[in-house]
Amino acid sequence: xxxxxxxxxxxxxxxxxxxxxxxxxxxxxxxxxxxxxxxxxxxxxxxxxxxxxxxxxxxxxxxxxxxxxxxxxxxxxxxxxxxxxxxxxxxxxxxxxxxxxxxxxxxxxxxxxxxxxxxxxxxxxxxxxxxxxxxxxxxxxxxxxxxxxxxxxxxxxxxxxxxxxxxxxxxxxxxxxxxxxxxxxxxxxxxxxxxxxxxxxxxxxxxxxxxxxxxxxxxxxxxxxxxxxxxxxxxxxxxxxxxxxxxxxxxxxxxxxxxxxxxxxxxxxxxxxxxxxxxxxxxxxxxxxxxxxxxxxxxxxxxxxxxxxxxxxxxxxxxxxxxxxxxx
Amino acid sequence: xxxxxxxxxxxxxxxxxxxxxxxxxxxxxxxxxxxxxxxxxxxxxxxxxxxxxxxxxxxxxxxxxxxxxxxxxxxxxxxxxxxxxxxxxxxxxxxxxxxxxxxxxxxxxxxxxxxxxxxxxxxxxxxxxxxxxxxxxxxxxxxxxxxxxxxxxxxxxxxxxxxxxxxxxxxxxxxxxxxxxxxxxxxxxxxxxxxxxxxxxxxxxxxxxxxxxxxxxxxxxxxxxxxxxxxxxxxxxxxxxxxxxxxxxxxxxxxxxxxxxxxxxxxxxxxxxxxxxxxxxxxxxxxxxxxxxxxxxxxxxxxxxxxxxxxxxxxxxxxxxxxxxxxxxxxxxxxxxxxxxxxxxxxxxxxxxxxxxxxxxxxxxxxxxxxxxxxxxxxxxxxxxxxxxxxxxxxxxxxxxxxxxxxxxxxxxxxxxxxxxxxxxxxxxxxxxxxxxxxxxxxxxxxxxxxxxxxxxxxxxxxxxxxxxxxxxxxxxxxxxxxxxxxxxxxxxxxxxxxxxxxxxxxxxxxxxxxxxxxxxxxxxxxxxxxxxxxxxxxxxxxxxxxxxxxxxxxxxxxxxxxxxxxxxxxxxxxxxxxxxxxxxxxxxxxxxxxxxxxxxxxxxxxxxxxxxxxxxxxxxxxxxxxxxxxx
Lengths: 328, 632
Known about the structure:
The structure holds two protein chains of two kinds.
Chain A: E1 10-12, E2 19-25, E3 35-40, E4 44-49, E5 54-60, E6 67-72, E7 78-83, E8 87-92, E9 99-105, E10 115-120, E11 123-129, E12 136-141, E13 145-150, E14 161-168, E15 175-181, E16 185-190, E17 195-201, E18 207-213, E19 218-223, E20 227-233, E21 239-246, E22 252-257, E23 263-268, E24 272-277, E25 283-288, E26 294-299, E27 310-314, E28 319-322
Antiparallel strand pairs in A: 1-28, 2-3, 3-4, 4-5, 6-7, 7-8, 8-9, 10-11, 11-12, 12-13, 14-15, 15-16, 16-17, 18-19, 19-20, 20-21, 22-23, 23-24, 24-25, 26-27, 27-28
Chain B: H1 13-24, H2 28-43, H3 47-58, H4 62-75, H5 79-86, H6 89-92, H7 94-107, H8 113-124, H9 127-145, H10 147-152, H11 155-171, H12 174-179, H13 181-197, H14 201-218, H15 233-240, H16 254-292, H17 318-327, H18 331-347, H19 349-354, H20 356-365, H21 375-389, H22 391-402, H23 409-427, H24 450-469, H25 488-501, H26 517-533, H27 540-554, H28 560-576, H29 579-585, H30 587-603, H31 607-629
InterPro entries (chain B): ARM-type_fold (IPR016024), TEL2_C_sf (IPR038528), TEL2_Regulation (IPR051970), TELO2_ARM (IPR057348), Telomere_length_regulation_dom (IPR019337)
Domain Telomere length regulation protein conserved (chain B): 315-423
Subcellular location (chain B): Cytoplasm; Membrane; Nucleus
């Protein structure tokens, strides 16, 4: 007799706009407070205190244009945010400051979230959709130098890049980029050569979101159709479809795999968050709280496994926080 | 009866005479039950006995020939036996020919199918007689195809003729079909037309089955006529007549058992096979999952049974519904609206009353845009809801549209159905202030298909007769039911009179008294129901009088469905109008009706009509008696 799905542990209200992106910063020790960053459609980035469940600060850096990506850089003192004002802002939040240190003008009017990868202390690689339609540009931060520009070959007709994921197998190895495109294919790029290593058509519709497990060399992508596609990377760096999973309702906005690689969460257009086991993609739970499309899901980076949380932001202006499968 | 064969020239005329006399006096069964089996055995292999048998029947005098031949045809166990017994009697004897080819087939219809099989099989077994078979088929088809026969002969006779036609067809060989192909085609076309024109579904179906059979025989290659009709035992029986089984299968029971055993043996094998594959299948997944279960899979899934497909929300306000139904391109929303409309209308009576006529208009013209299950029922229930919420204006609109131009027959009949269902709901007492929608079905009036209503009418009238003819003093055995004012009372007239008004005025696309007699039949039945539901209302007497005049005007209508409806109308009048008013205000009409009922009882070809007429006469008698027994 299966238990009914759990209720949210708590719900954060107060953004007064659709929530498009979330990022936790809970890894630091006491007396630092666990923090959740959220970006909303009204251009604000809210810094939520997870002890008091209230907004500590609201950052306004994108001219009231929708913020659709936030990522922490170096703990909770550095933040990267990307907005529809074609800008990527780098924030300095240490010691209570709320200043935009630097910004990158992307000249891109799309919705593709940038991807951040820490390559060394104080140095990151950032992949973002560039000005030209099908191109992805990789920059080194904070120097903002261009590492490479990834152009698909002429006639490839991939469309816009929809989602990006920079990864490297371990600290010293080469960084690679997985990009999901408008035509439903996922491409693996080699950054040093600027060349595509492998391309796989995973969906009939645009790839809305993807995530990758570098240890198992397996990834998952979701689209606007009813299918989740799981693909793997073999030794020759070739992408192959591993399996597909059919959903009850069409449309996935976001997918994220928990850092311990045990479960993953999907944010659906049908207002529901679905939890799957990562090993075999076994459906584990359907969390039905929101009353509108769920735009983003994010797992927390708590050091203590039992405190781990899952956050989901939705068009109904709420952020739901869940504590699920924390025993393993 | 034992004869010495061989060499002796005996005269059996005497025996023929005896046989004939006995048969004519009605003792066919006794004598033939002994004679026929004996003769069957004797004539099986012995030619001489065959000749003796033939002489026997040939010598029967003409005046007794019919009885004898009929007896043989009925008693013989098979066509081949009949052939052995009678020989070419039909060719040699005029009277026998008349009996076999005309009387049994066209003038009588009481014989079971086996007799028909015997007779027609007999005709087909000899080349001399086959010419008669073809002649018989032509005459049967002529009768089958004649529109007056279809209209006036009882359904049982029509079924009998159809069976005969099918059996004839089964006996015909290719060259014969070739020679009369054109004739078959012509008669089939004519016959199909008159059958499909009929209002009784049984006749229509008979026509369809026979036409399909003829078509399959004459067009062995190429497209065959195919109709859509309800398959039930009758249809299957008729179709089985088309195929002739060889005579040997009938008698021995042992081969049958063998066959049955084989079939039984085959079944368990198949079942076992299925079971094996079933057990094989689960084994595999179990093994697979066993191999994969390890420490990581201790994550217990939660209950996901609530995870269903997301449904679009229907609009919450009636005016929004109107917008969606008339303009919207969003099919999901349109579907959701259609499904939610009835409950919305019932929950918001005040809002509905503001836009009731507009909503009724939209619903009347609403066509199925996407494939929803039960669309017709949903639309009808929404229409009924609108009509019961705001009866007078909507009834006015609907009844006026019934007689307007450019509506399809289906729409006109929809109007009638909706009026009846709404009347039913309005006249049924509401329990605890809430209408029971399913409860409204209880007065045993099912109006989903017109063909059923005649049977239900009998049931209802029977029940009412039962309740009225026995008067026992019964104590209060039930709790008093909740009572409320009869909502139908104030609106009954609005439902009824506009429908009755213009029935004789033909329009360009709609002529009740002409071609559209099916709709007329439905209209008459609807009026009967409305009359029945108007019991205890104020307008009932006026309605009764108008209805009796209507019935009088239409009483000689040729369609039996219409006549059945008219008789139901009379039943409703007799049951609903209070007896005193009946006998005081409508004495003349009542007397005229009574005389017409007597006429129908004696002369009407349709069995149902006669039965209804009888019930009505009984009702009248009871009413008169009741009035006489009331102490003045």
